[in-house]
Design a protein that fits this description.
The chain has 10 helices and 20 strands. It has 398 residues and is of the alpha/beta class. The protein folds into 2 domains: 3-50 and 161-234 and 324-395, FAD/NAD(P)-binding domain; 98-154 and 236-321, D-Amino Acid Oxidase, subunit A, domain 2 (D-Amino Acid Oxidase, Chain A, domain 2, 2-Layer Sandwich). Strand 18 (328-331) and strand 19 (337-341) form a beta hairpin. The protein binds glycine. Glycine (GLY) binds at residues 49, 51, 239, 275-276, 319, 345.
Length: 398
């Protein structure tokens, strides 16, 4: 059993958020332990396609605008994040600097695309309307039945599996203690029940820390021990996703394609990611014929050539989503506890920003965060009325 002297920070969750944060915290000189229930980077982050697409993903409504603000900021951080990660890990983390096309197959979808165009223009975002012939000049594999396209020039992509492998190496090289196959049962509170002092593992072992960060994605809600009103209601949103390969090599499409029901993302080397369903089915992870059929049917209408691709993998992931689908990043109602979860469809995009925001909050040398507007946009305390704890409170022995 490991020694149990307190570390500066214990991070619960070894996905892209937890590992990015751990790496950044070590850079600031803090001691960090990451606790991962399975294999680090082996769940949601591994299944993710890796779109860095704040403009394409923007949703109507106030929460959508908050996510856009966070996404634009994090997208600007990605090139430097990738370069630093490349240097720290010795592994090449390359961004796919391609634009994204939003596509309409029929009149109804074209009307919706016009609405989406007006919405993005009203927000001052760069989007261009393309006639079908212009879109097909850019992407000759698109079907002649295409009705309308929008080009979003600034939305790019990255391969999350490469990022995860590099983060793992950077964490290990910098001295992060990574404990895999280690499940957390509860947050541990001080004797007064007012401050988190660590976590309790499933077998009862305490892991004490000056600060606790919950970055366990959809599994965050299964962690008990929180007083009433101190939690964040994260739910899993299932996504089925295919990985395809063109035996002829690259060239079928060069840009990310988005359409009602999915997206097709080229890796640039003849591999493609075709995703993803959005299903509210709790923690159920079964791949289904219906899910795969719909993805293939919808994409084939737009890119008939995908029929020739080989299927390399079908995977299923769980997005961590809050009631307003905006993330919960920052300190909540309980002292000593910080949240970094609820990234919904944007976990890969928001990893650099989340890591920077949380590291800034936990760094005792930084007297005050200079990012108060951004932190207000993802304040975990906005859910304090709607959450009820699932498990009983765990107190530290006096
Ligand atoms: N970011 C795309 C998805 O969640 O499917």
């Amino acid at each position: 059993m490991p020694e149990n002297h307190p570390v500066d920070v214990v991070v619960v969750g070894g996905g892209i958020i937890g590992l990015s944060l751990a790496w950044r915290l070590r850079e600031r000189g803090m001691s960090v332990t990451v606790l991962e229930r399975d294999e680090a980077g082996g769940a949601t982050s591994r299944v993710a396609a890796g779109m860095l697409a704040p403009v394409t993903e923007v949703e109507f409504g106030e929460a959508g605008r908050r996510v856009l603000e966070l996404g634009l900021r994090s997208a600007r951080m990605w090139p430097r994040f990738a370069a630093q990660l490349t240097e720290a890990s010795g592994m090449e983390v390359a961004l796919l600097q391609t634009s994204t096309l939003l596509l309409a197959r029929d009149e109804d979808e074209a009307r919706e695309l016009e609405r989406q165009l007006a919405f993005r223009e009203s927000l001052g975002l760069r989007v261009a309307r393309l006639r079908p012939s212009a879109a097909r000049e850019l992407e000759p594999a698109l079907a002649p039945t295409l009705r309308l396209a929008l080009e979003v020039p600034d939305d790019h992509a990255v391969d999350p599996r490469v990022v995860l492998a590099a983060l793992r190496r950077a964490c290990q090289a910098s001295g992060v203690q990574l404990r895999e196959q280690t499940r957390v049962r509860a947050v541990e509170l001080d004797a007064a029940g007012e401050r988190a002092v660590g976590v309790l593992l499933e077998g009862g072992e305490p892991v004490r820390a000056r600060e606790v960060v919950l970055a366990a994605g959809p599994w965050t809600r299964e962690i008990g021990g929180l007083p009433p009103g101190a939690g964040v209601p994260v739910r899993p949103v299932k996504g089925q996703i295919l990985r395809l390969r063109d035996p002829e090599g690259p060239g079928l499409i060069a840009r990310v394609l988005r359409f009602e029901g999915g997206y097709l993302l080229p890796r640039g080397d003849g591999r493609y990611v075709l995703g993803a369903t959005m299903e509210e089915r709790g923690f159920e992870l079964r791949p289904t014929a219906g899910g795969v059929y719909e993805l293939l049917r919808d994409t084939r209408n737009l890119v008939p050539g995908i029929s020739e691709l080989e299927i390399e993998e079908l995977s299923v992931g769980l997005r961590p989503s809050t009631p307003d689908n905006a993330p919960a990043i920052g300190r909540g109602a309980l002292a000593g506890l910080t949240w970094a979860t609820g990234h919904h469809r944007n976990g890969i995009l928001l990893a650099p920003l989340t890591a920077e925001l949380v590291a800034g909050l936990l760094d005792s040398r930084a007297r005050e965060s200079s990012e108060n507007d951004l932190l207000a946009a993802c304040d975990p305390a906005r859910f304090s009325d709607t959450w009820a704890p699932g498990l009983s409170t765990a107190r530290a022995a006096p």
